[in-house]
Amino acid sequence: MELKLFDVLVAFSGLSLLLLLGMALRQRLRWLRVLGIPEALVAGLLGLLIGPFGPWSVFPERVYRIWSQTPGVLISLVFATLFLGQTLPSPRVIWNRAAGQTAFGMVLGFGQYLVGGLLVLLVLQPLFGTNPLMAALIEVGFEGGHGTAAGMGATFSELGLPAGETLGLAMATVGVLTAVLLGSALVVIGRGRNWLVSGDPNDAAATGSTHQGLKSTDQDPISADERLNLERAAGTIQPESAQSMTIDSLTVNVALAGGAVGLGILLKASLTGLGGVFGGPETAKLLQAIPVFPLTMVGGLIVQVILQRTRQTQLVSAVAQASVGSLAMDLLITAAMASLNLPLLEDNWIPFLALAIAGLSWNVCAFLWLAPRIFRDHWFERGIADFGQGTGVTATGLLLLRMADPWGRSRAMEAFSFKQLLFEPFLGGGLVTALSPLLIVSWGLPRFSAAAMVLTMASLLFGLRLGRRRTNSDAPA
Questions:
Q1: Is 327 left (phi over 0), alpha (psi -120 to 50) or beta?
Q2: Quick one: which of 77, 143, 152 has its CA closest to 336?
Q3: Selection from 174, 150, 178 nearest residue 164 by Cα
Q4: What are the residue ranges of helices labelled H in 235-292?
Q5: How do residues 15-62 score in pLDDT, each as one tens digit?
Q6: What distance lies between CA 85 and its chain's CA centroid?
Q7: Where are the alpha helices (DSSP H) in 58-203?
Q8: How far is CA 235 from the centre of its chain?
Q9: How confident is the model over 463-476, as pLDDT tens digits?
Q10: Please, is 439 exposed, middle or buried when counting C-beta atoms within 10 Å of its C-beta (0-12, 13-18, 19+)?
């Protein structure tokens, strides 16, 4: 028992040291900051060098085993904090401000399943015998990111794809890097073609916005609480705000997040039990493969609703929840990357490369061809934010948005932030992402690809209808 405790302490100390080195390296190398590469990813790549399959393996195998098991635990805590501390706006407010943004995000997400499904079904499976589960890797890696890929590792393994976590993490890494490079190139092209908003940044009438990029008008004011919610959803809460957080507040907020995780565990147990009663042992076994982390997000939403209904919202802090989630995510990415199983990636490098290229091509084409038709105004700024998130992570989307709209002339930040409330419960690590491998196994890849096509087309038609309706409503009478 003492030996196990010692191994856990060594594993935690190693992750902490890697994070400190990653932060120091990012501070020293300016190009890492310019590209918006997270400290945790830098730390994870450093950990890869001293990991079990790196050139310098420095820790015992027991420590690496702890690292490999850490992401599955921490991702549940990350998702539990997503809705905690947010004053949930009314569904009408969310819908009015984020419907178009959500439709475009759905097109990107479901389209990634469609592209992956067709590529595996028509090319990779006949030529290389590729596992059908790899059809989900584009969305899991690009939309979901490192945290989702790590959290889905056990599901992939149970369903017959042991390399799923490694491939998902590699796809997420490719997504972050290429999102910055391709996105930056698109911003340069857009500026040269006058696709971006123009105007004098010193002209208040032209900008009509704050330095945060959240425009406020007499017809549609944004309160201080709402602005904090937008920053919370977009991950832009300033670290200075954490200075007002007390130890007692942090303790309560960690307890609330833990309660959300507990509700998620109960929800999974309930689903598995009901599946066994109504569908038999096979259904229960299939439902057992559902990861816990999307259900902890539901648990966090339930906790937040209870706090609002009982008027006890002072117990939860958006800043504290953001800090808890950020800490868990940093440790998660570092541990997942450091314990990456490189031989599994080597065995599947051709299908992996084909899927990565196909996913990137889809995202770029959707941005250039569909965004101008879905968004009534500021299509470039709105689209580039979703392109960054749909290829890399939310922070990448914000980075590209600030490159395209540094003075906040558009309302893209507001729409992008509200979109997370509609989008994240389903795609990018939500319920659809979690269920996709199970649906591929239970339905078969042809039916799954057909369903992805239907959902992609439905999202596209809805987005085009929104774009036409808003254009007509703006036309002079």
A1: alpha
A2: 152
A3: 150
A4: 247-279, 281-288
A5: 999 999 999 998 888 887 776 677 888 898 898 888 888 788 888 888
A6: 19
A7: 61-80, 91-119, 125-128, 137-138, 145-151, 153-159, 164-192
A8: 11
A9: 888 877 654 444 44
A10: middle
Q: Torsion angle, CA of 216/219/224/228, rounded to 10 degrees?
A: -70
Q: Assess contact for 359 and 138: CB atoms under 8 A.
A: yes
Q: Which two tokens stand for residue 23?
A: 């932060």
Dig out the tokens for 116 from the structure: 């992956």
| CA 390 – CA 387 distance, rounded (Å) | 5
Question: What distance in Å separates the CA atoms of residue 162 and residue 341, rounded to the nearest whole number?
Answer: 10
Least confident of 120-129, 363-372, 403-412, 465-474: 465-474
pLDDT in tens, 115-172: 999 999 999 999 999 999 999 999 999 988 888 888 888 889 988 999 998 999 899 8
Task: Determine the length of the chain.
Answer: 477
Please tell me the distance from the alpha carbon of residue 84 to that of residue 68, in angstroms, as a whole number: 27
Token reading at 418: 């509200």
Average pLDDT of the chain? 81
Instruction: Decide: 111 and 456 in contact? Cβ < 8 Å.
Output: yes
CA–CA dist 136, 117 (Å, integer): 7
